[in-house]
Amino acid sequence: MLSLRGVFRMRPVADTWRRSAVSGVIAVGVPAVVLLLTGHLPLAFFTAAGGLCAAYAHGLPYVARGRALGWVLLGMLAGTGIALTTAALTTSAVVRVLVLALLAGLFKLVCDASRIGPPGNVIFTFIAAAAGFLPVRLADIPAHLLLVLCGGALAWLVCMAPALVRPHDPERFAVSRALAATARLLRLSADGGANGAARARAEYDATALTHAAWRTVRLVPTPSVGRAAEITALIRLLVRAESLAAAVQIADRPAQPVRPYVPPGWERGWLGVGADTAQWCESRSTASRSADADLLDGWSRQLRTRHAVPVLDGDVLAPVRRRSIGARRGESGVRRVIRAFRPSSPGFQIALRVAVGAALAGLLSVALGVNRPYWAVMTAAVLVVANTSQSWHRTVQRVLGSLVGLGLFTVLVPVMHSQAGLVALSLICYLALEATISRNYWVASIFVTPMSLVMVQFAGRLPSGHLALDRWIDTCMGAVVAVLICFTVPNRRAESRVAIALRELDAVLAHTQAAPAQARADRGVRERVAAALVELRDAADIATGEWWSVEAPQERIIASERAGHRLLAQLPVRTAAAAR
Fold first, then answer.
1. Which DSSP helix (H) or strand (E) runs through 184?
2. Could you tell me the residue range of the domain that residue 222 belongs to?
């Protein structure tokens, strides 16, 4: 359980990091430079709070991105306003810590339920925690919030500006990721030497990224015939990837019904997949899979350029060639957030652990005499995650990264004697953070530490030595509390979440088995199956990482996943063009 395996492994960099980095630098840097030139740099903390909204929603199509950024800014205003009001009304560090801990849990709950994506609750919690210990008067709060709003408005404009140049990149990149993941699956199956875990992970990645691509495509409006044609071309690429992944499933894993977990009837010909499908799947030999993988990779790279979307003829999609994207969008984010507040929801207990851990870390920091214990609150809130294993790994990464970051901050103290140096250092650290956060959290923590300390310096210069010492004490305190919380208050919803996910997937399989004709006509069946597969794998991974939990029923999980993938392989599909 306390293994360090994978803690320092470097992952591929996220394909959106450059845009996120540039957007954040502009949204945070431009107001800071203006305030610097006008002699009001202490106000830059508030414009930076709004500017950091630019870190969100870069994977969404632009219409959906605009809505999401509006909600992010609203949440930033609310959290900052509550923290500033608390700081203005009381000087009690205990009261401030308790309010900030409650906010930390709330941010965790809402961000997870809304699926806003990285960086999730981290930035909200950091800004609120820092604001909660600023010297502020009640009369100044409206002006400070106006600065947050201005920074957020600039962030919104900066994040939406690429739509003027390359308006279709988000959906193209989403499909590109799905094609690349499917290509990796094909290569693994072609090699034949991949272990079961690697194969299962590749299947999960392909299913999850394809599911995400379908959701992204569904969010794109088609106001013109040309736009509809481009979306149809993207859909055809997705269908092609699904067909190739289906071929791997059918050819490599012949039907092996497992009762009672997998409904019977997976033999060839079921649900309208006849001999032509079986023959086509079997024809995808090892050499063919390698060639198919190369083809998918080529399309994936082409989608990331300014070239036109590759157009596939309808016959190329045989034997699975028809699909309608329909208008089904799934449950809205607002409803998911409202539902998350139920004590029985999977995210409620995690949010409760975050709040309790943040409160304990902050109160212990106050007891040790730390002047600004907000970083203990922040550290505990970030380190309490889905299960004990993940919390342990992130704790090690955070502590080591903070130690190196504090050393970097100490070395750079001479640069911070000037206000211009503060601004430049914060922006450089932000760029480095965006470039490394997707690769490894411990490397990113090296740059998070000086960046956060410098941004706090915007609001008022503090002795660098005391600030670094307080930060180190708070980091260690938050890390210790987070680990203790995860061991003593485990996520007891993890095991039940696996059972619920299994029931959901089995229910879809049973429904499709009982009414195959209805399943053929139902536009949402494939989406339900894909979503159930993603949820089952997520739930199983979380449950496996809890030290206390009963061993997950791996045989049943594998059998259900196999059945789900085979169902995806056998369900008919239809393009948007065909639907018309």
1. helix 169-191
2. 167-328
Q: Is 155 exposed, middle or buried (0-12, 13-18, 19+ CB in 10 A)?
A: buried
255 has pLDDT over 50: no
Q: Output DSSP code: residue 256.
A: -
**Alpha-carbon gap, residue 360 to 290, rounded angstroms:** 54
At 265, the pLDDT band (50, 70, 90 cuts) reads: very low
**Residue 170: both structure tokens together:** 């988000």
Query: Could you tell me which residues come within 8 angstroms of residue 345 by beta carbon, excluding any fewer than 6 positions away?
Result: 113, 339
Mean pLDDT of the chain: 79
pLDDT at residue 459, as a whole number? 67
**Residue 322: strand pairing partners:** 574
Lowest mean pLDDT among 61-75, 368-382, 493-507: 493-507
Rounded to 5 degrees, φ, ψ at 571 are -70, 135
Domain presence at residue 344: no
Let me know if residue 233 belongs to a domain.
Answer: yes
pLDDT of the residue at 231: 87
The confidence score (pLDDT) of residue 267 equals 35
Q: Give mean pLDDT, residues 204-224.
A: 83
DSSP 345: S
Cα distance between residue 121 and residue 111, in whole Å: 6
Q: What is the mean pLDDT of residues 260-277?
A: 36
CA–CA separation, 519 and 271 (whole Å): 8
- CA distances 161 to 28, 58, 70, 205, Å, are 16, 12, 15, 31
From CA 313, how far away is CA 479, in angstroms rounded? Answer: 56
Q: Is residue 244 part of a domain?
A: yes
- Residue 179: name the closest of 214, 154, 131 by CA: 214
DSSP 3-state of 322: strand
What is the total count of domains within the chain? 1
Q: Six-digit token pair at 75?
A: 């949440």
pLDDT at 187: 85
69: which 2 tokens? 């950024």
Provide the residue type at 96 as one letter.
R
Task: Estimate the crossing angle of helix 493-514 against helix 346-367, to 10 degrees.
Answer: 160
pLDDT, greater one: 468 or 101: 101
Tell me which residue of 509, 520, 532 sits closest to 204, measured CA to CA. Answer: 532
User: Do residues 456 and 462 lie in contact, with contact meaning Cβ atoms separated by under 8 Å?
Assistant: yes
The pLDDT score that the predictor gives to residue 257 is 40
Opening angle at CA 180, ends 174 and 183, nearest 5: 145
Residue 198 located in a structural domain: yes
C-alpha torsion angle, residues 234, 239, 240, 245 (rounded to 10): 130
* 119, 56 contact by CB (below 8 A): yes
**For 404-438, what is the HEC assignment?**
HHHHHHHHCHHHHHCHHHHHHHHHHHHHHHHHHCC
